[in-house]
Design goal:
The protein has eleven helices and 18 strands. It is α+β, with helices and mostly antiparallel strands. The chain folds into two domains: 5-300, outer membrane lipoprotein receptor (LolB), chain A; 316-409, no CATH class. A twelve-stranded mixed sheet has the order 7-8-9-10-11-1-2-3-4-5-6-12. The chain is globular and about 60 Å long.
């Protein structure tokens, strides 16, 4: 099925549902009885996972606050000033640090809207039927995408079956259900038991005391890695006590007491949003671009369209995994365009072309490191470390830099 930028954007920027499924699906193990100090009935970790998969979302609107303290260097246009990137701007590329406020509306599988609110404007993603709009009030630009009707029909046909998770329903038809015939769990209970059994060696899971999020009483599923090498200390997932939908996700680092990443509702309403929330007409003076999802996805990623017949690298040739679980490390060969922007490879007096100027500034601000693996630059954040080598490799993981150096020095499996 044709991919779309809205699918990935909902996965990164929407309500905590998508984050919850990514974390819980890969990290939960073990279970203990709830110790909730409220009227909530005791639940185990496995029961909460099953509740999440059974949860039904028909409509929703609310306010979501995202806070990130990832230890990233401050660069022009990427700071968290005024709760937004830059000087209070609401740009979709500025949400990697600081605090950000989103408005979210969910009117069903064919209607969703996200609005990133800033003091100098807002940026919106609006899905209404086959139409998708991406709008920036500050830049006075809008991109209009028309979804492929065949792909949308396939998502709703018998090609995909099984109940969608709460996250998939929140994100709409662009986050699809599981394919049939794959041997995947067929029921929420089966899926929860499989997740717990598969991840038991890596994570301890328990249900902590009840919490209140956006005025609603919620269970809190607490996930603690058993791996001492990871920078992730704990993940806390608040699950609505009545509707069993995720209300908040907090990720804690071993380096600090406050959450390094938090996404949660501050207000929520389960009634149907007004239809006008999904209607969009570009304001006067807006520059409108008509384009297909693939074109926008390539542009957003900074990837030029390869010429016809150009050779492409196989994923296995460019990326390898070292380790497993919470301390897994990704080692990758950077594309030529990205590798060419490292300080060691950029000619003096010549700035990196186009959108790579900011990457060049970032790299120049990072400490230089070297070892048996080579030389390069290191970024040590609160939840992850990143090494970019002068010979065009990258290593990334939720571990200390020393583990990345070892992964870079290790020979690739033949």
């Amino acid at each position: 099925m044709t991919a779309s930028p809205l699918r990935s954007r909902f996965g990164r920027w929407a309500v905590p549902a998508a984050v919850l499924v990514l974390v819980a699906g890969a990290s939960v193990a073990g279970s203990r009885l709830a110790s909730a100090d409220s009227d909530l009935a005791p639940r185990t970790a496995a029961e909460l996972l099953a509740d999440l998969q059974r949860a039904r979302l028909d409509h929703l609107s609310g306010t979501v606050v995202q806070t990130a303290d990832l230890g990233l260097p401050q660069l022009p246009g990427m700071s968290g000033a005024s709760g937004m990137g830059g000087a209070g701007a609401a740009e979709l590329t500025s949400i990697v640090s600081g605090s950000h406020t989103w408005k979210v509306w969910y009117g069903g599988e064919n209607q969703q809207r996200l609005a990133l609110i800033g003091t100098l404007g807002e940026s919106d993603i609006i899905h209404n039927g086959k139409d998708v709009w991406v709008w920036s009030s500050k830049a006075q630009t809008a991109t209009h995408l028309v979804m492929d009707p065949a792909a949308m029909a396939a998502a709703k046909s018998g090609a995909y079956s099984g109940a969608k998770s709460a996250a998939a329903r929140t994100a709409g038809p662009l986050m699809t259900a599981r394919p049939t015939g794959t041997g995947l769990p067929a029921t929420p209970d089966e899926a929860a038991k499989a997740a717990l059994a598969a991840i038991d060696p890596t994570t301890r899971a328990e249900v902590g005391p009840a919490v209140v999020v956006a005025g609603r009483t919620a269970y809190e599923l607490v996930l603690t890695p058993k791996d001492s090498a990871t920078l992730v200390a704990q993940v806390r997932l608040a699950v609505d006590g009545e509707r069993h939908l995720p209300l908040r996700v907090q990720v804690f680092s071993t380096k600090q007491a406050t959450p390094a990443l938090e996404v949660g509702f501050t207000a929520i309403d389960f009634s149907a949003p007004e239809a006008r929330q999904f209607e969009f007409t570009p304001p006067p003076g807006t520059t409108v671009t008509e384009g297909m999802p693939e074109a926008l996805a390539d542009k957003a990623a900074g990837m030029p369209t390869p010429p016809a017949g150009a050779p492409t690298a196989k994923p296995a040739d460019a990326v390898r995994m070292v380790g497993q679980g919470w301390s897994r490390i990704v080692v990758a060969k950077l594309p030529a365009q990205a590798a060419g922007t490292t300080p060691a490879q950029t000619s003096p007096g010549k700035g990196a072309p186009g959108g790579t100027d900011q990457l060049q500034s970032l790299l120049a601000a990072l400490p230089k490191v070297s070892g048996a693996w080579g030389s390069g630059r290191v970024l040590e954040g609160t939840l992850f470390s990143l090494v970019l080598t002068d010979d065009g490799r990258a290593a990334l993981g939720a571990v200390a830099p020393e583990a990345l150096y070892a992964a870079l020095a290790a020979p690739a499996a033949g």
